[in-house]
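Render this sequence as a predicted structure.
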Amino acid sequence: MQKTTHLFKSFFIEVGELSYFAGRFFREVFSRPFEFKELLRQCYSVGNRSILLVGVTGFIIGLVLTLQTRPTLEEFGAVSWMPSMVSISIIREIGPVIIALTFAGRIASGIGAELGSMKVTEQIDAMEVSGTNPFKFLVVTRILATTLMLPILVVFGDAIALYGSYIIENLKGDVSFVLYFNKVFNALEFSDIIPATIKTLFFGFAIGLVGCFKGYNCEKGTVGVGLAANSAVVFSSMLLFVLDFIAVFVTDIFFKI
């Protein structure tokens, strides 16, 4: 009982500290100086480090989803619905969530380890002594980069996933490229695309926030760097599922899916 109470207490303390960290981000993001060069460098770094992984993940999603679903639709004589079903499934839910989880594993751990290493080697303290604002330079730029880049990566991953699905349909059912994507775009509506895009902004923000929070508050020397990287992935993944539930719930209210 005492152990459970301690776990709950630690959890709520961490949530409070994370909330304070997020509040500090919103205070700093609108104040001068603006680190545009560092922001662009972080955007390039985040996107470049993730694009291959996102592309491979999206391609496999399209292949597997089509291969698994096609036999069932064949039993009901509904193979013609395959492009519509796959496109809606990928755009609404599967693409954003799986790509965000992949992104979290790649980026949140990297940010946690990078900032954690700077923390334990006292580079962050040295920046404060030299008159630089380390929070704005290190944290604000990284959170903005993940927030801006994840939606772009999700759009890229969704496109690759749909192309992977088309390949299976072309091999199994001899469906042309034009016919397949005509059915895809006829099935999609703004109520599918807009909420899915908006929630990826929150996913990216959560991933960057947690990664920076864990790294910036890293302790216990070099051991703490590994703990920061690991806990950043776990915590951000859990937060993604919570945000996804909230996004689906809100979308259901406003768009009546």
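Summary. The mean pLDDT is 85. Residues 36-75 form the longest helix (40 residues).
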